[in-house]
Amino acid sequence: GRFLSFTHIDGWFTQACFCLSPHFNQRPLNEVSLIVIHNISLPAGRFGLPYIDQLFQGRLDSSADPSFKELDGLEVSAHFLIRRDGELVQYVCCDDRAWHAGVSVFEGRSGCNDFAIGIELEGADDIAYTDIQYQCLAQLTDALIAAYPALTTERIVGHCDIAPGRKIDPGDSFDWLRFKGLLK
Question: Which residues on neighbouring strands pair with residue 23, listed in sequence order?
């Protein structure tokens, strides 16, 4: 694979490009026990543009695309983004709470941001993800499971699973069996 192993120091992954977001706060219990997989593209279905970084940094120019009007003033972030070419970007320390899940419930517990790591894949619900994205996601997931004892392969969900009826990502294009098959 591209990365033989991910290494981290105090919740920061050294193989990532850092693009720090102001949209985070302290976890209430400093517990990490869930991974939530999302997708994002800005504008929808377009890739390789600077707008995801800008959104997570709170500096998206809402006049850059008509679809951005609804994002004006939105304060959101994720811990990670995996771009189409496999580049890993980290916005928020894993030990902090990123603002990615919104209104959400996992196993009867609400407020998934309190205990989840949010990983965005640059993609769309109906566009296949790239081979390198699956490889990077699996290697990052293995490293997170090794770093946080409460994480297991059973505690990896899509945004759709914790916000049903509200969210559908990572979408039908995400191959869960392929992804799980790549995990150690």
Answer: none
CB 44 within 8 A of CB 117: no
Task: Specify whether 120 is catalytic.
Answer: yes
DSSP conformation class of 127: B
CA distance 62 to 48: 18
* Mean pLDDT (whole number) for 170-176: 97
Q: What is the pTM of this model?
A: 0.96
Report the alpha-carbon distance of residue 96 to residue 126 in Å, rounded.
Answer: 31
Band the pLDDT of 1: cuts 50, 70, 90. Answer: very low
* Backbone phi and psi for residue 116, each to the nearest 5 degrees, phi listed first: -110, 150
Which is catalytic among the residues 70, 120, 122, 154? 120
Q: Give me the residues paired with residue 82 across strands.
A: 88, 121
Q: Which of 89, 87, 110, 112 is nearest to 2 (CA)?
A: 87
Q: What is the mean pLDDT of the chain?
A: 95
